[in-house]
Amino acid sequence: MTQSSPGTILISTDEASLPAWVGVFERLAPDRRVVTGRSADHDGDIEYAVVWSQSPGLLIGLPNLKAVFSIGAGVDHVLADESLPDVPVVRVVADDLTNRMGEFVVWQVLDQFRQGPAYRDLQRQATWKWLPQTAADAVTVGIMGLGVLGQDAARKLAMIGFKLAGWSRTAKSVEGVATYAGEDGLGPFLGASDIVVVLLPLTPATSGILNYELFEKFRRSTMPSGPVLINAGRGGLQVETDIIRALDEGLLGSASLDVFETEPLPAESPLWRHPKVTVTPHAGGNSEPEALVPLMIAQMEDHDRGRPLRNLVDRAAGY
Amino acid sequence: MTQSSPGTILISTDEASLPAWVGVFERLAPDRRVVTGRSADHDGDIEYAVVWSQSPGLLIGLPNLKAVFSIGAGVDHVLADESLPDVPVVRVVADDLTNRMGEFVVWQVLDQFRQGPAYRDLQRQATWKWLPQTAADAVTVGIMGLGVLGQDAARKLAMIGFKLAGWSRTAKSVEGVATYAGEDGLGPFLGASDIVVVLLPLTPATSGILNYELFEKFRRSTMPSGPVLINAGRGGLQVETDIIRALDEGLLGSASLDVFETEPLPAESPLWRHPKVTVTPHAGGNSEPEALVPLMIAQMEDHDRGRPLRNLVDRAAGY
Fold it and tell me: What pTM did the predictor assign?
């Protein structure tokens, strides 16, 4: 490595999308070497790692590693590696990903709110029948998690006409959103929400938070079929046996789940076939290399020039 | 009838919703008599008619009829009565109805754009598979009909991130929308649109406009499954045999239809069972008496005081 050549990038992600990430980095940062694994030959040159669910230990002992970039808005998959070196971890904050997630949330909220599942049942039966149709401004969508994604979803849902509530670990103020915070705020927040959208990070504090005890606190007044749960965050937030129990007992009216305890969702999971569950395959917001790589390269170049990294993860908080 | 008593209201709509309309009028205009049919006793007192698909002739020869209020944004059902007296016809322009229609359009656009039908097929097969996901700003939603409903839908879709095109009979300028007008503009408009949303009024000029020849002009580049048709206007706009042919030949990728040539859609219609068709039962935007009656009463009171009626129908244009 000469003084003037910029550092090597180590990329680690799922096999299917790895070639696309490598290709876009090679095209947009032609002066940098891109590698996809460890080797005594180049380990000393690696300055940046770009990872999704890296193998534990992958990043140990890289002498010149400066930062780790997460592929995806959540970083639990990065932090799960207990041997992760003590370097800055950068999350993705990109309009492209934010917009995809926001549109996914609006899609699922509208599909539940406008009774998509029930209308599709009626179509299968060739039955023409109107279902009750609540006005959007009589319904409160509660968003758990008020980061960049939660705030974008709130803004779009407000524009459709819904009332908004929001819950976060620490108190936040978001225009047009009735906000609640911390453990004490959870009950009042859930009691005020008809449709609950989950965009929380997965941390030790949020793991399994979507459980039976929580569903008992949901409001059940406005939606014809009962409260709705939409999890577009992480599968580790939810207890799937509790979701099924709550649906079967009527504590929950229906659920849209994009994430699961085990992904891919095993074919034998009853969620696939539950009449009150919409399953999507962690498709809320794809991380598109074309959209995200330019932002990562810009941060690497800034950092090389001594400027601070942005969108850093608080490793103590876990997000 | 004394000088001071306000005029009687004649209400005519489908049997199922008639009691609700009568009830809300009686509650909100207690000084007015409300009748639901003709009678020599009260015909002379009727000043306003509030109708949905009235029986032809219902309104003939009412000596003091001042105006007809349509239940619903479209007025084709009112004008279809060739014996309709030559009095002003008032359409519904109400935020409540506009919002319901806008949210319906956003719902159906997102469901098609995010490949809802394909993901539901995958769920039925318990198959975990990502489908290609285009960015919203690479897709143009074209709106046919740029009245109050079309403009509201455009604003909401733009906020989600779509590019917008619009077509109307006469040239209009709408912020953020590439507009086209008249017969000459139709080809270029369709060539620029990936998803076509129809919110046109049904008039002699638009009857059957959604036909095979039109579908041949659709753009077919961006949506993975091909161009999408969403008709939330009137069933008389569409030629259903042509829609099926275009879907089967791949000219159209998929369709969301809320309105039909015959309503209720007959159980034997192949549309119910077509794998590329989403059927909803004219549920785009319900006309809710609670939301609309206050606006009608306000107009009646204004008119009684000599002020002009608003949202008048141009009977020559048919909308």
Answer: 0.95
